[in-house]
What we know:
6 strands, 22% helix, two-stranded antiparallel sheet
Amino acid sequence: MPDIETFDNPHPQRDYVIKHVAPEFTSVCPKTHQPDFGTIEVEYVADKLCIELKSLKYYLQGYRDVGVFYEDVINRILDDLVAACKPRWMKVTGKFTPRGGIHSIITAEYKGR
């Protein structure tokens, strides 16, 4: 996966929520090898660092050809983003398009200090 770049939080003294929405996420189902499509939402309260958007975009595009279940990819994304920016709090939600008549929403959360 491409590296996730960060920049200094311009207001580290304050808790405020940052939300990024990536509506064109794609990966591959490891069982059927069919493409999966969804929207990834990243919400966090930064501590010292914020996530740089271009690197986040390239990071998420890195999953385009990866065979991964929804549950795994959302937790992987959370782990990688937490490692990159060490937030006070973060939540990653994947809202995946229907497959076989079932719509899946997966949420993983990190609670820092």
